[in-house]
Automatic annotation (TrEMBL):
The keyword Transmembrane helix applies. This is Uncharacterized protein. Residues 107-144 are annotated as: Disordered. Residues 128-144 have a biased composition (Basic and acidic residues). The chain crosses the membrane at residues 184-207. Keywords: Membrane, Transmembrane, Transmembrane helix.
């Protein structure tokens, strides 16, 4: 009998899957009040909400059937929350803890002439003490300032985390670059290509004019050669860095930095 009941429950669970849609997960925090401050930046976006999942509060936006419908919204949100990303979310109003819908919004059939009477039926009997409690728990100006500072601190920590991740894995930064950034890199490539050609011509002219008769001219030519080497790497789309006067290039296959001779 127990096995039959368990099999029936499993069949019902499979027959009625969770309502999954694409949404943007903006931020997570264990402090609801700090996340409410961040909510003010995205409150005008559709389906902006704060959900409670296993003692962790999630700030989410949107509920779309297609992932592409959230691309532009994600780009705008990343100006303030660079760690935001698109994922599949279970749409369940019981998880939403902020903003809470009023009794009139939850029961539209009570908004007629008998709206007040119907509202009394679904409202708690001790309404006045609850109103007093809400007024006494209203945050003061000092508390709002503290929450704002906490939210700013969280955003700065997210920025530091993303910068450190991009420095450790530069390939990820190039894969997640938006289209307008790719156009910018293409323009930089054209510019560095032209500058590379101009530098070669200038180097030839300097070599013919001054030659390598002294140490100063030799150092000048070496600097010009190093500049051409750097421009050549940038023109090929390589990621470079300088450490202790040495030039390093990032090898995408081995995911390591190697020194350029």
């Amino acid at each position: 009998m127990i096995r039959f009941v368990l099999a029936t429950l499993l069949l019902i669970t499979v027959s009625f899957p969770a309502n999954l849609k694409y949404c943007i997960q903006v931020a997570t925090d264990s402090n609801l009040e700090a996340l409410k401050v961040s909510f003010q930046r995205v409150k005008d976006y559709p389906e902006a909400r704060i959900e409670n999942r296993e003692n962790l509060y999630l700030l989410r936006v949107g509920a779309e059937d297609k992932k592409e419908n959230l691309t532009v919204m994600l780009r705008n949100i990343r100006r303030y929350f660079p760690d935001a990303f698109i994922k599949k979310c279970e749409i369940n109003e019981s998880y939403v803890v902020y903003p809470q819908k009023s009794a009139i919004q939850e029961t539209p059939e009570l908004t007629g002439q008998k709206g007040k009477e119907g509202l009394r039926e679904v409202s708690p009997q001790k309404q006045e003490p609850m109103k007093t409690k809400a007024e006494t728990t209203e945050p003061t100006q000092g508390k709002e300032t503290k929450e704002l500072l906490i939210a700013i601190k969280n955003e700065l920590s997210l920025l530091r985390k993303e910068v450190s991740e991009l420095s450790k894995n530069p390939q990820k930064a190039t894969e997640e670059s938006p289209p307008y950034f790719e156009k910018f890199l293409y323009s930089v490539g054209i510019f560095t290509g032209g500058l590379f050609f101009f530098t070669w011509v200038l180097l030839i002219l300097i070599y013919r004019k001054v030659g390598t008769s002294n140490v100063e001219n030799t150092n000048l030519l070496n600097d010009m050669f190093n500049l051409i080497k750097v421009l050549n790497l940038l023109n090929k789309g390589q990621i470079i860095k300088m450490e202790n006067g040495k030039l390093f290039v990032y090898d995408r296959k081995s995911e390591k930095w190697r020194e350029v001779d």
